[in-house]
């Protein structure tokens, strides 16, 4: 049995480590990545342990966008930023700070069950469905989405500023306070 991780959303520093599996002290046999590696341009990566790497022979697998020079240049730049700016360390620091502020400001509100997440992949779990809150938050300038039906999902960039954090918390607190 192979252990396979999908790191398309969680990888490339999002959780405070380059790959989310590093937070758990395990190493998958195969993992996939994409999206953030090339700044949103179409890329997909599959990393396979050497002992399982003989699944494809050179030239057996390809895609419409395989080896696209623009995407490869964007991926190279993405890796340079990830390493050069120590993105995972910044994500851990900012994510921990954001989590503490969210907990301090939101946990006492009637609508809020708990704040959860890791790094800059955070969520505010509510006692009811999250959908009604999303449009209000977007109208206040906070781009959010729903996860699991009852969680307002927050995925800020690693370069989020203190001013942006304050604005996000202010919007969340206003919207959840109105429903308490």
Note down, in words, how this protein is organized.
The protein is elongated. The chain has 2 domains: 4-84, no CATH class; 88-178, Aspartate Aminotransferase, domain 1 (Alpha-Beta Complex). It has helices at 69-84, 87-106, 131-139, 162-178, and strands at residues 4-6, 30-34, 44-48, 112-118, 121-126, 145-147, 151-154. With 180 residues, the protein is an alpha+beta fold. A hairpin with a 3-residue loop joins strand 6 and strand 7 (151-154). The chain has a 4-stranded antiparallel beta sheet, with helices on one face. A 3-stranded mixed beta sheet has the order 1-2-3, with no helix packed on it. The protein is built from 4 helices and 7 strands; from the N terminus they run βββααββαββα. The longest helix has 20 residues, at 87-106.
Secondary-structure map:
Layout: E1 4-6, E2 30-34, E3 44-48, H1 69-84, H2 87-106, E4 112-118, E5 121-126, H3 131-139, E6 145-147, E7 151-154, H4 162-178
Parallel strand pairs: 1-2
Antiparallel strand pairs: 2-3, 4-5, 5-7, 6-7
Helix pairs in contact: 2-4
Give the SSE order as H and E letters.
Answer: EEEHHEEHEEH
- What kind of sheet is the major sheet? 4 strands, antiparallel
What is the CATH-assigned architecture of the largest domain? Alpha-Beta Complex
- What is the overall silhouette? elongated
CATH uppermost class of the largest domain = Alpha Beta
Q: How do the strands of the widest beta sheet line up side by side?
A: 4-5-7-6
Q: What is CATH's topology name of the largest domain?
A: Aspartate Aminotransferase, domain 1
Q: What structural category arises from helix and sheet content?
A: alpha+beta
């Amino acid at each position: 049995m192979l252990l396979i991780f999908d790191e398309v959303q969680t990888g490339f520093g999002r959780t405070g480590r380059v790959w989310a599996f590093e937070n758990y002290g395990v190493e998958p046999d195969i993992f996939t990545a994409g999206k953030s590696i090339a700044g949103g341009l179409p890329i997909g990566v599959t990393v396979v342990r050497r002992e399982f790497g003989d699944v494809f022979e050179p030239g057996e697998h390809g895609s419409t966008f395989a080896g696209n020079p623009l995407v490869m240049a964007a991926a190279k730049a993405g890796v340079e930023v990830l390493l050069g700016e120590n993105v995972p360390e910044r994500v851990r620091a900012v994510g921990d700070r954001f989590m503490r502020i969210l907990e301090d400001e939101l946990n006492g509100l009637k609508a809020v069950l708990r704040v959860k997440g890791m790094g800059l992949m955070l969520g505010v779990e509510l006692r009811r469905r999250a959908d009604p809150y999303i449009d209000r938050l977007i109208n206040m300038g906070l781009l959010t989405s729903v996860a699991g039906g009852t969680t307002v999902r927050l995925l800020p960039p690693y370069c989020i500023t203190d001013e942006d954090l304050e604005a996000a918390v202010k919007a969340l607190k206003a919207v959840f306070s109105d429903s308490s």
